[in-house]
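Reading a protein record of the kind used here takes only a little practice. An example makes this concrete, so a full record is given next.
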Amino acid sequence: SCTVLQIDYNGTATTFFVLPDPKKERELDTSLSVEILKKWANNVHSDRAMVSIPKFSISATYNLKEPLSQLGITEIFTDHADLTGVTGQLLKLSKVTHKAVLTVDETGAEAAGATAGEAIRTSLPPNYTFNHPFLFFIFDTKVNAT
């Protein structure tokens, strides 16, 4: 079992922060799938909440030459590449890299408030504290990709 918090960004990206029950972390880790993420996205409800997530930053660099080649984009890496429309010179690509960075801090948490309907609450909003290992996923709702 786990608690799932969805925070939407501008556009079609959303992040799921998943706080597993400490006794069931391994069970959750092995049962996650794209279908589970889609199920969470389709069953979300909007509400106000007090959320405490530690500040963190994570980055990764990806070499895209192999994935591009698997998609059939190969000529751009050969001597037959024609990039003269871009640079005016005879060039070919030797590699393509993508760097992704995710930073969660006070600004991100403040900008990520979810709003409920117009009903007036008679109790305090729920409190979610991410104070033990948790997972997060960035999900594009337009293309259903993580």
